[in-house]
Specification:
The structure is a single chain. The chain is α/β, with parallel strands linked by helices. The protein is built from 9 helices and 9 strands. It has a 6-stranded mixed beta sheet with strand order 2-3-1-4-5-6, sandwiched between helices. Strands 7-8-9 form a 3-stranded mixed beta sheet. A hairpin with a 3-residue loop joins strand 7 and strand 8. Helix 6 crosses helix 8. The two termini are 32 Å apart.
């Protein structure tokens, strides 16, 4: 008997979905930073054993869209409700349970197993009584969900969660090759790692106005040559990304190269360029070019 299924991770921004995904898969598949709206795509991470295959999907945080990029991000999250065998709805110990009720109402109507994960319990003030209040509130909102307190950062409760997922998985042959870790190509992870460093090293609106496109990815036995373009929406943003005498961009590229070498286990030659693509976040054509199409 072989089990396989799609386990989709949804929830509001900044509740720890990507950290949870990385812990469950055992590899760093998704960007995980302290900033909200880090994940923009739907990213699969695949766990394989001889007896089973779990296809996890990390999704963007649910939000009210203000421009076309956010509309695409919401579409990725809503698509995860359509093809899940098991849904992981992630919240944490501080967020308002009534946030984004439109999306939550769709979850309420689902007839598949829903595991509600209360993340970051290591940050909970008030102990067990406070946790009991949070659990009771969520039980009223999602009465059919199983509720599990976890700390993705500290790996608390993740082993129990994996065991429960294995129990709930349907019988099925594998959907992907057993040696496959994700559905994304190498170029995707290059752009994500560079974007992660930008998220970490720049403030305010700059990281959210940035997209990274890999123009060249030439892999040799021990070396990978990468040319990447960092797109921004304004000429002023280009100056901030580059920094005085190129210092800011050099720092980002150095940190990205180190992370890429660790990810690919090869020497990386990374060359980056910064270009202005005015209002790309609101352009249907540009969003399609950058892969923001949930279809």
């Amino acid at each position: 008997m072989h089990k396989a299924g799609f386990v989709n991770i949804v929830g509001n921004p900044n509740v720890g979905k990507s950290t949870l995904m990385n812990q469950l898969v055992g590899e760093r598949i998704s960007i995980a930073t302290f900033k909200a709206q880090t994940t923009r795509h739907r990213i699969m991470g695949i766990v394989n054993t001889p007896e089973m295959q779990i296809v996890f999907s990390d999704t963007p945080g649910v939000l009210k869209p203000n421009y076309k990029l956010q509309e695409s991000m919401l579409a990725f999250s809503e698509s995860a409700l359509q093809d899940a065998d098991i849904l992981l709805y992630v919240t944490d110990v501080v967020e308002n349970p009534e946030k984004n009720m439109d999306f939550l109402e769709k979850v309420q109507k689902m007839d598949i197993p829903v595991l509600l994960l209360i993340n970051k319990i290591d940050e909970l003030a008030g102990g067990e009584s406070k946790l009991g209040e949070i659990v009771e509130h969520w039980h009223m909102l999602l009465p059919n969900a199983e509720i599990l307190p976890v700390s993705a950062k500290n790996k608390f409760g993740t082993d129990l969660l994996l065991k429960r997922i294995q129990e709930l998985l349907p019988e099925s042959p594998a959907f992907f090759d057993k040696d496959q870790l994700t559905d994304k190509p190498a170029r995707f992870f290059v752009s994500e790692i560079i974007r992660e460093k930008i998220l970490l090293y720049y403030d305010k609106e700059i990281p959210y106005s940035v997209e990274v496109s890999v123009e060249r990815f030439k892999e040799e036995e021990k070396l990978i040559h990468i040319n990447a373009v960092i797109y921004v929406e304004r000429e002023s943003q280009k100056g901030i990304i580059i920094g005085h005498q190129g210092v800011a961009l050099k720092k980002v590229c150095t940190e990205a190269r180190k992370a890429l070498e660790k990810f690919f286990d090869k020497t990386i030659y990374l060359e980056t360029f910064v270009k202005v693509d005015k209002d790309w976040r609101s352009s249907e054509r540009e969003l399609n070019h950058f892969g923001y199409n949930p279809e």
